[in-house]
Amino acid sequence: MVAGKKEIAEEIGFIQNAFGAILGPQDSWLLLRGLKTLKVRLDQHQKSAHKIAVWLQNHPAVKRVYYPGLPEHPGHELAAKQAAGFGGVLSFMLHNVEQVERFLRNVTLPALAVSLGAVESILTYPARMSHASIPEADRKKMGITDTLLRLSVGLEEPDDLIQDLEQALQCSVSSSNYVS
User: Fold this and answer.
1) Among residues of the chain, what percentage have pLDDT more than 70?
2) CA proximity to 104, closest of 174, 171, 178
3) Which cofactor does it need (predicted)?
4) Does residue 23 share a domain with residue 42?
5) How does 39-48 read in b/e, with b if 16+ C-beta sit within 10 Å?
6) How far apart are CA 21 and CA 69, in angstroms?
């Protein structure tokens, strides 16, 4: 349904018909239902991501953490001015590829997938997943190294995620000497 001037309504109607840019009734209902809890969910994503980022930042098995909610992040001040929060996605680097491989074999709670912003936490290995087709030199220019992991924090209890990350990090360093 379109309300307003007839010419605009006809143009929108044509675009909807030509491109299929309309939601079905079930999709519309799901969207409206989800909007009611959006703020609560985003607040929890951000709170959990911040807690995990601080924890990772202090872990000796982690080389670096990228999260705008950390005061050390180069974009922290700008993000604090422009946004109401810092989001639910963070990235972190381990010390070497072997450590990354051991970590990925042992982490269990976040799903290993190419996606962001779900109810469940999702761990991505960009160099081997989303950016695998990009030449290594170009990836490095973008900051996507072979030791970078990205975590989209879901709605699980952050302490459960931390416990799982801890056991995976412990397994990852069992025979590692942190040589990059």
Assistant:
1) 94
2) 171
3) pyridoxal 5'-phosphate
4) no
5) eeeeebbbbb
6) 36
Is 178 contained in some domain?
no
What is the β-pairing status of strands 122-124 and 111-112? parallel
The β-bridge relationship of strands 122-124 and 148-152 is antiparallel
51 in Cβ contact with 111 (< 8 Å): no
**Tally of structural domains, the chain:** 2
* 67 and 123 together in one domain: yes
| CA–CA dist 39, 83 (Å, integer) | 13
Q: Do residues 59 and 99 lie in contact, with contact meaning Cβ atoms separated by under 8 Å?
A: no
Cβ atoms < 10 Å from Cβ of 49: 26
Instruction: Give domain status of residue 96, yes or no.
Output: yes
**Would you say residue 148 lies in a domain?**
yes
Upper half-sphere CA count for residue 116 (Cβ side, 13 Å):
13
The pTM (predicted TM-score) of the whole model is: 0.83
> 16: pLDDT confidence band, cut at 50, 70 and 90?
confident
Residue with tokens 């010390």: 95
Residues 18, 76 within the same domain: no
Q: Which residue has the tokens 């959006």?
A: 38
What does the pLDDT read at residue 15? 84
Q: pLDDT tens across 19-36, in order?
A: 887 788 999 999 999 999
